[in-house]
Amino acid sequence: MHGIHSILQQYWGYEAFRSQQEEIIQSVLQGKDTLALLPTGGGKSICYQVPALAQDGICLVVSPLIALMKDQVENLKKRGIGALVIYSGMQRKDIIRTLENARQDYFKFLYVSPERLETSLFKEYLPALNINLIAVDEAHCISQWGYDFRPSYLKIASLREEIPDVPVLAVTASATEAVQKDICEKLHFRKPNIFRQSFERKNLSYSVFQVEAKATKLVDILKKVQGSAIVYCKSRKKTSEVAALLQMHGLPANFYHAGLAQEERSKRQQEWIDNKTRIIVCTNAFGMGIDKPDVRVVVHMDAPDCLENYYQEAGRCGRDGKKAYAVLLYEGRDIEELETLHVNRYPGFDTIRQVHDALVNFLQIPVNDGQDRSYAFRFDEFVRNFKLNVHQALYSLQALESDG
């Protein structure tokens, strides 16, 4: 085993760890399942990268977004560290080559999206991989996004049945006590072991404005606060509209959302990182895992779904420790929309039961049948046939899936 301080110095050039990083790393090296809650920009990735480098074998990193994985793999390669990535869209031959490489001692990190864990090809190679640590990046996804965005995050626990002696390190910048408990349970922690650091960011100024004309206020803010900026919108359509508006006012802006081609998303993201584009107007598909220290302002054009999301997104500014601003703009109807969203996102038992019965009817599944079987399913046709609320049907199906 190599010394963790010499590893930090050799690859990152730092003389000392930040607050709690060393304690978290020691916990992992002792084989303990660990949950680390560190603020945005608090050096979460070092908490699993250093212990992985200190031991023989390879660290399996489960991460939610392709852009995030690629970015971290490139950063590791620049430091002379062998790192690999598997994501959706790769050809089978490329996945096989990557998994073959993962068996070589040179490679220390294998990044995968949670969906990849369930493929027969990954399961075939898993016994041959000398995994020393399972790192779950953006771990709040298993509780908060696991139901809405990545149900496959809930399947990570099954990996532990295949490699039961390998510890898990879950890292996140945002988790309430309920979410912390949920993360430990969903990842089958042998014993709750949580490290928490203060989430106060003294250099950030948080402001909320109730306005009649959001666009006017936004332009005013971006003209007053110089430097790199992120503007969050709830809809893809709105990102392009707001970016066009800013351009009309002489503010260099571009938009970003998951509907753009991967190549175009990467191009726009890099132009913003390189300060060729000052303002990126985006949905919440943007920003996770991106470490750009000189962002001076983050503006939310819509009230976020929850405080955890807001804290994480707002925390993408001011990572260089200099003064930065997080601004939320809202109008009266935003509150009404949030209340409606809450009703749809957390359907009651009767609604879930109704959707379940409709699904069984739609697929013509006999009573006490259907387990471990797959069915062709068109969601749009299902909702239309049974006259269901689209959002309530979607969240009801996700609740049924998460409950097995």
CATH H-level superfamily of the largest domain: P-loop containing nucleotide triphosphate hydrolases
Write down how many β-strands occur, each being a DSSP E stretch of 2 or more residues.
Answer: 13
Global morphology: globular
Question: What's the overall average pLDDT, rounded?
Answer: 88
* Gyration radius over CA: 22 Å
Total individual domains: 3
Query: Which consecutive residue ranges, at least 5 long each, have pLDDT under 50?
Result: none
Q: From the 3D structure, determine the CATH topology of the largest domain.
A: Rossmann fold
Largest sheet: 7 strands, parallel
Q: What's the CATH architecture name of the largest domain?
A: 3-Layer(aba) Sandwich
Q: Give the termini distance in whole angstroms.
A: 41 Å
**Secondary-structure class:** alpha/beta
- Strand order, biggest sheet? 3-4-2-5-6-1-7
CATH class of the largest domain: Alpha Beta
Helix content: 40-55%
Please give the count of helices: 17
Beta-strand level of the residues, as a percent range? 15-25%
Q: What is the string of SSEs from the N terminus onward? A: HHEHEHEHEHEHHEHEEHEHEHEEHEHHHH
Describe the overall structure.
The protein is built from 17 helices and 13 strands. The strands form 2 sheets. Strands 3-4-2-5-6-1-7 form a 7-stranded parallel β-sheet, sandwiched between helices. A 6-stranded parallel β-sheet has the order 8-13-12-9-11-10, with helices on both faces. It has 3 domains: 4-196, Rossmann fold, CATH 3.40.50; 204-336, 3-Layer(aba) Sandwich (Rossmann fold); 346-402, no CATH class. Strand 10 (253-256), helix 12 and strand 11 (279-282) form a beta-alpha-beta unit. It has helices spanning 4-12, 21-29, 46-53, 66-78, 92-101, 120-125, 145-148, 156-162, 177-186, 214-224, 236-248, 262-273, 307-314, 332-345, 349-363, 379-386, 390-402, and strands at 34-37, 58-62, 82-86, 107-112, 131-136, 168-172, 194-196, 204-210, 228-232, 253-256, 279-282, 295-300, 324-330. The model has no long low-confidence stretch (mean pLDDT 88). It is α/β, with parallel strands linked by helices and 404 residues long.
